[in-house]
Amino acid sequence: MLNVSRGYSLIELLVVLGILGLLATLAMPMAEMTVQRERERELRRAVWEIRDAIDAYKKARDTGAVVESSPSHYPPTLAALTELRDDARADRLGQPIRFLRRVPRDPFAPADLPAERTWGLRSYQSEAGRPQPGVDVYDVYSLSDRVGLNGVPLRDW
């Protein structure tokens, strides 16, 4: 009878480990790109949500639903979008209005900052190419210096 030993040799184990290491090395950039893509998707969604709320606030000011003392019809701060207000129009007097439940965070901002401070603010009076904060919030942008997968800096989204 022939006595055959079962198992793997050291060389077979090293070849398998080498192949697994190579596959892991190839998979890492794909995993990093997937994480980047998801964060960019969150950023796009957050910017759209805030911009929609700013537009709704302006429309409410234009129609008289929101009454403020400032001459601008845009919100004075991002926090103003989350405040519960009473509708000032006669046909809807006293009905509550809120434009955002909470200010979304910029997913590329440091985690220790409050959500409101993760955004760059552009006033209505500032130029699009050089956004500056002012007495109102006309637009928001990411403060990140990173470039998106599409080649456009995140600040310009």
From TrEMBL:
The keyword Transmembrane helix applies. It comes from the Bacteria. Pfam families: N_methyl. Keywords: Membrane, Transmembrane, Transmembrane helix. PROSITE patterns: PROKAR_NTER_METHYL. Gene3D superfamilies: Glycoprotein, Type 4 Pilin. InterPro entries: N_methyl_site, Pilin-like. The chain crosses the membrane at residues 6-31. This is Prepilin-type N-terminal cleavage/methylation domain-containing protein. The lineage of its organism: Bacteria, Pseudomonadati, Pseudomonadota, Betaproteobacteria, Burkholderiales.
